[in-house]
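Batch manifest, entry 17 of 40.
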Amino acid sequence: MSQKRRRRRSRLPRQPVATTVEKLTPEGRGLAHVEGKPTFIDYALPGEEIQFEYTRTSSKYDEGKAVEVLKPSKDRIQPECSHFGVCGGCSLQHIAADIQIQFKQQALLDHLQHLGNIQPETVLKPLRGPTLAYRYKARLGVRYVEKKGKVLVGFREKANSFIADLSLCKVLHASVGERIEQLGQLIMGLEARKHIPQIEVAISDDVTALIFRHLEPLSDDDRQSLADFARAENIDILLQAGGPDTVEPLWPEQRQRLFYSLPQHDVRIEFQPTDFTQVNPVLNEKMINQALEFMDLGSSDRVLDLFCGLGNFTLPMARLSKHVTGVEGAEVMVVKARENAAANDIANVEFFAADLSTDITGQPWLQQSYDKILLDPPRSGAMEMLHHLGKLRAECIVYVSCNPVTLARDTNILVNQYGYKLKSAGVMDMFPHTAHVESMAVFELG
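Output type: structure tokens
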């Protein structure tokens, strides 16, 4: 530990401090004012009287964590997972699920109000799904801890880089979540136990795939141990020695193409374990259905799908419209999207590769006209695209967002600069028990 870090820790008050929590922040932390200073407290709820310990101090605000609840909120519940409070994978398990989603809905509305003085004409009912065993994609840290004589597998502890000492994970799909301890024991038995930093999880409709990242070449014995485990547990194991292009199947020897189905749209989307897919398949299907409902596609509609990925929205939209153009930043994803279209016998689509965070003026697909547009950007939002959206003048835009701050920023521009009306908006519980807010907004040309 650095000398500076030691000094900072030594200045922290050692005794718990009593306070009353005023409200919940957008990150899911309790806010209190202690001697007039804003203090952000983990695991504390509005109205609660608590004892908390300081975890960090600064000139403008302090941070802490609740260690005793003297007067609990009616919204407080017993966390489902015994590791809650140590593992950083979840931050809201102490809050009833119905209250979690209300908090997220209000966070979205607050951001829209604060950044653009805008409210939707209709606030959508939140999309809900399972709150446990919902997560089909994850990256798990791995660490051999000599003092404990074991290998830890799981998410990192809250607010530090240590791997949490987990025996299970309630939010991961059971094929992995119930094998956390087993995976640690497997790696503990390998010669390379010190050289495996990560396991990437990718689960399809019928296959669980694990990618073991390794920093040194694996011995034949280690490879055999992993293959034996994969065969016995009916899990695909792949190895990754370097970048994504080094991923190789271990067992079975021929890499399986994973897939998820959207039966309502007669679409099956194939993907590789390293490809981006939504972590929550139940919410993903509900999200697609809701987007299509608002777009109200007809046989004459021409549609633009920005940040289209593998065709998650593109292909279902193509079933209902005249033509869909999908645009994605990575050429490799565009190739896979085309393959998915061909595999589903969908011919009324075309895909282009373009970095949508840069100047795309002159792109051929921008010279076309579109009746409706869907965009599903990364957390940074779609700022660079808004000028072009304003020029395209599509009658309807459906914006799927994973960051309410950038959605609110972009909404302000679409409404106040380009004449769109925010017809409806609401959240989707893609990541239960976390402060992550996924939402959908529907715009119509004024």
